[in-house]
Specification:
The complex is a heterodimer. Chain A contains twelve helices and no strands. By secondary structure, chain A is mostly helical. Chain A has a domain of 224 residues: MetI-like (MetI-like fold, Orthogonal Bundle), CATH 1.10.3720.10. In chain B, strands 2, 8, 9, 10, 11, 12, 13, 17, 18, 19 and 20 form an eleven-stranded mixed beta sheet that branches. Chain B has a three-stranded antiparallel beta sheet with strand order 1-21-22, with no helix packed on it. A three-stranded antiparallel beta sheet of chain B has the order 5-7-6, with helices on one face. In chain B, 56% of the residues are buried. By secondary structure, chain B is an alpha+beta fold. Chain B contains 15 helices and 22 strands. The chains are: A mainly alpha, B alpha+beta. At the A-B interface, helix 2, helix 4, helix 6, helix 10 and helix 11 of A face helix 1, helix 5, strand 10, helix 6 and helix 12 of B.
Chain lengths: 337, 572
């Protein structure tokens, strides 16, 4: 297993390099321009100067190599310096990956946004799983019962109604009509005592619910079908014939086997948590990683978009590996060595 | 795949940009009114306006940094850090119009307690004029020869040419004064490395930054060193960003969570519906923005290769006919466009120079009323006869127009309406929209930029900063025509070229008297309008909304909407 993991990690290096090159090339070829959104009152000569100051005057390979150096050497060095409080070389003049719109290091922007994204999107994922698993299990066990029908109906709604619609409906009901919940997420709120904790819960409620509904719908359907596959297997009949209690049969034997594909699906979905939820974040102004990405795309902030998408790529590669490893751990029939 | 899909949807969900603001006097104590909540649906990225031309960034910074003088809501200059506005009459502007001398207010301190002096003004000019810094306001400093401190409270700006309107540097919030002590190591190429200074500039204005999260939120506190007693009335302020215009309007007009929301380009009916909730007020102001059609004068046939869209490529096959241009303009019902897409935020106009009032011509006002019969007659008389498909043609040339603009809900609505109106006079229209960052971006390799203008008609809004139209009217001289020779740089998109017009522009550069300048500007406007180099459609205003409990808003299109935030108070 260890050998396998190391081999996969080594293979990931060239894969990620190729991915980073492709992302960079696509962004470079895209005909958007960082000065494109500036007011028209800024004349073309000034725009040319701005582009030059951003480093756009250099040829493509040099800009790519610079980014590689900044991302793979300068940023880790800087991170080490910050963690351990030491100085490595000439850190004041070391160039970090710098956003064009904010002129500040991209990694700092990402770190600043992690908390709200992980809280809101991560919480909705956890909540989604917690809701989905029991619903999936019960729906499958009592297939075609009223519970199953209702569960299917809600799943279909969660699955097919887009988040920008549910989000706005919730705002209209809970913020505009009832005035119970804030429609705008306050990212400066510090949780220090019970009242501020309650405020945080209140502002998280709507975005978390919207996303949890969507996530739960997906996972519940997976869980249900996986359970159904297993419930009709021979080993279930054997277990029942042995006289095991129904609870043991379902929760120990069937559930454990059914969870294998579901766990894989859940692991593969985790990178999306870090990717943020672009639309939901915009609607509730959570201003996490998703909103950062969309602003970067709109403003043609190439270093920002490049770094963010590359980090997503790393996470996707990583969690694919995690899913494979989990599969091996959960299912003794699968051995990688 | 998911991310991509979401991205596309979100892009579609987002819309456009522009500027504008409103007021009452405070006689209370500083900080007595608690917190002011401001919502800009585009979040502030940086608080150094010299490194960002974005309106949101300039406005967010305008609460901290001050220029020597502001433009008020009428477009008149009011002193901020200056004692008075220098003019030729008070001796502030030299007789040969090549220098201007500003007297600074005495006893002003920065928010860190150090004194504000003329050296800071000199430094701010040096900062922006450094060619490697990529300063966004450098056009404010064009033709500046030197900026010198005569003494601690006097600054002399010398120009290399005569400047009849010498108020480019340090007038308006695009070019404020920054502190030398804070930015001295941030000149030129080092500008972006000073993140701490760019995110938290020390200013002389009513507020200071306490927390800044780029592209998200700015938290301010009242500047306790602010020079005006008892101001600002708010102890803290929050400048939140994100979302889109309709949601921003909702949070002021319907939920009342925020006090002020900026740039609400929302469908007029929806905005009216929200305002009916009675929590807030929609405010508008009109600056110089005009949504106009640019009419292509040159041939854009792809077969021309490198000569496409240039003077060398020859004249346009049918838009070179004045009758066709006039008919296109007369066929448009501008009021319908206003009602459908702009509501209170738009007015019908027949000029590209719609304001200030002293510059506005009335010679072209007959375009305000649609006249389809006259348009049809013009085309009939000019020999453009309708074919079997209902489209007019002459000598094998069909009146078939490619009409492009940037991607934006309101613009696509306008396009669809104009297409119908032109169909009524036998003109076929093909519509095209291009993402704003491509259309307005200067990518040389893209055929879809507004400078290349590989279409017959293109539509967008343009305006000018401040109140002086000289530079703006200078856009349509022959040398400003974009072409491969000048890397497609230049603002003369319609490729209008007229020696007589160029002479008027040159004359305006030498004329100081405001009456004569106004007469010249009007004459230039009328020449452009009668040649129909451009077809003006809508004089666009800025729309914002404020809570009914917020007093003192004086909506301003000539400067930052937050220009008088020090005077804002909370109703008791």
């Amino acid at each position: 297993m260890l050998n396998y993991t190391i081999r996969r990690l080594l293979f990931a290096v060239p894969t990620l390099l190729v991915i980073s090159f492709i992302i960079f090339a696509i962004l470079d070829l895209a005909p958007s321009d960082p000065t494109g959104n500036l007011p028209l009152t800024i004349p073309a000569e000034v725009r040319a100067q701005i582009r030059e100051a951003l480093g756009l005057g250099q040829p493509f390979p040099i800009r790519y190599m610079k980014w590689l150096q900044q991302f793979f050497i300068n940023e880790p060095l800087n991170m080490m310096e910050q963690w351990w409080g030491i100085q490595i070389g000439d850190s004041a003049n070391r160039l970090r990956v710098t956003s064009w719109a904010t002129r500040s290091p991209v990694v700092d922007l990402i770190v600043e946004r992690m908390p709200q994204t992980l809280w809101v999107v991560g919480m909705s994922y956890v909540l989604g799983i917690l809701i989905a698993l029991p619903i999936g299990v019960i729906s499958a066990y009592k297939q075609y019962s009223i519970f199953d029908q209702i569960g299917t109906f809600i799943s279909m709604i969660g699955f097919s109604v887009p988040t920008f619609f549910t989000g706005i409906v919730l705002i209209v009901i809970f913020s505009v009509q009832l005035g119970w919940l804030p429609s705008i997420y306050d990212t400066t709120l510090q949780v220090t005592d019970w009242p501020s904790f309650w405020k945080q819960v209140k502002q998280m409620m709507m975005p978390v619910f919207v996303l949890a509904l969507f996530n739960a719908a997906q996972i519940a359907r997976f869980m249900r079908s996986s359970m159904l596959d297993n419930l009709n297997q021979d080993y279930v009949r054997t277990a029942r014939a042995k006289g095991l209690r129904e609870q043991t049969v379902v929760l120990t034997h069937v559930l454990r086997n059914s969870l294998i594909p579901v766990v894989t699906v859940i692991a593969l979905g985790i990178p999306q948590v870090f990717g943020g939820a672009i639309i939901t974040e915009q609607i509730f102004r959570v201003n996490g990683l998703g909103q950062l990405l969309i602003i970067g795309i709109e403003g043609a902030d190439i270093p920002l978009v490049q770094t963010l998408t590359f980090i997503f790529a790393v996470l996707i590669v990583l969690f694919n590996l995690v899913a494979d490893l989990l599969y091996g751990i959960l299912d003794p029939r699968i051995r990688y060595d | 795949m998911h991310i991509l899909k979401k991205t596309l949807l979100a892009t579609a969900a987002l819309a456009l940009v522009s500027v504008g603001t409103a007021n009452a006097a405070s006689d209370g104590k500083r900080g007595m009114d608690g917190q002011l909540n401001i919502l800009y649906w585009q979040a502030a990225s940086i608080l150094n306006p010299y490194l960002s031309g974005g309106t949101k960034d300039i406005n967010a910074a305008s609460m901290i940094l001050e220029p020597l003088a502001y433009y008020d809501e009428t477009g008149a200059m009011v002193p901020a850090l200056a004692e008075e506005i220098p003019t030729p009459e008070n001796g502030g502007v030299s007789d040969d119009l090549t220098s201007v001398t500003w007297k600074l207010k005495k006893g002003v301190t920065w928010s860190d307690g150090t004194p504000f002096t003329a050296k800071d003004v000199v430094f701010s000019a040096k900062y922006c004029m450094d060619p490697t810094g990529g300063c966004n306001a450098s056009s404010n400093f064009s033709d500046v020869d030197s900026v010198e401190a005569i003494d601690d409270n006097t600054v002399k700006i010398t120009f290399s040419v005569a400047k009849p309107f010498p108020y480019g540097p340090f007038v308006g919030t695009t070019a404020p004064i920054i502190q030398e002590a804070q930015f001295k190591d941030c000149l030129g190429a080092k500008a972006p490395t000073c993140t701490a200074a760019n995110f938290g500039p020390i200013g002389t204005g009513p507020f200071t930054v306490t927390e800044f999260k780029a592209n998200d939120v700015v938290v301010y506190a009242a500047n306790d060193k602010y020079r005006e007693e008892g101001k600002p009335a708010f102890a803290t302020a929050v400048f939140k960003g994100g979302g889109e215009a309709a949601a921003a309007a909702r949070s002021v007009l319907e939920t009342g969570e925020f006090d002020y929301a900026w740039n609400l380009q929302v469908e007029p009916e929806i905005l009216a519906q929200m305002a009916a909730a009675g929590k807030g007020t929609v405010v508008t102001s009109f600056g110089t923005s005009v949504e106009r059609l640019m009419v292509q004068a040159t041939n854009v046939d792809p077969a021309l290769g490198d000569k496409r869209g240039t003077i060398e490529g020859g004249v346009h096959p049918f838009l070179n006919d004045p009758a066709v241009r006039e008919a296109l303009s007369r066929a448009i019902d501008r009021q319908v466009l206003v009602d459908a897409g702009y509501g209170k935020a738009g007015q019908v106009t027949c000029n590209v120079l719609p304001a200030p009032a002293v510059y506005v011509s009335t010679a072209n006002d007959d375009c305000k009323v649609q006249d389809v019969d006259k348009a049809n007659k013009l085309l009939d008389d000019a020999g453009w006869a309708k074919g079997s498909d209902g489209i007019r043609a002459k000598d094998g040339v069909r009146l078939s127009i490619l009409y492009q603009t940037s991607t934006n809900g309101v613009r696509q609505g306008t396009q669809a309406l104009i297409k119908q109106m032109w169909a009524a006079i036998g003109v076929e229209t093909e519509l095209k929209n291009i993402s704003a960052s491509v259309f307005f971006g200067g990518d040389q390799s893209s055929p879809d930029t507004f400078q290349k203008f590989f279409a017959d008609i293109e539509m967008y809004t343009n305006n000018f900063d401040g109140t002086d139209p000289e530079k703006y009217m200078g856009s349509w001289t022959c040398k400003n025509i974009p072409s491969p020779a000048n890397q497609w740089i230049g603002n003369n998109m319609p490729r209008y070229c007229n020696a007589e017009y160029d002479a008027l522009v040159a004359e305006m550069g030498k004329t100081a008297s405001i009456e004569k300048r106004a007469a010249l500007a009007m004459k230039m406007n009328d020449m452009l309008m009668q040649a129909r180099a451009m077809i003006p459609l809508i004089h666009r205003g800025n729309v914002s909304a404020h809570s009914n409990t917020l007093l003192g808003v004086r909506m301003n299109s000539w400067d930052s909407e937050l220009w008088n935030v020090q005077d804002w108070t909370r109703a008791k």
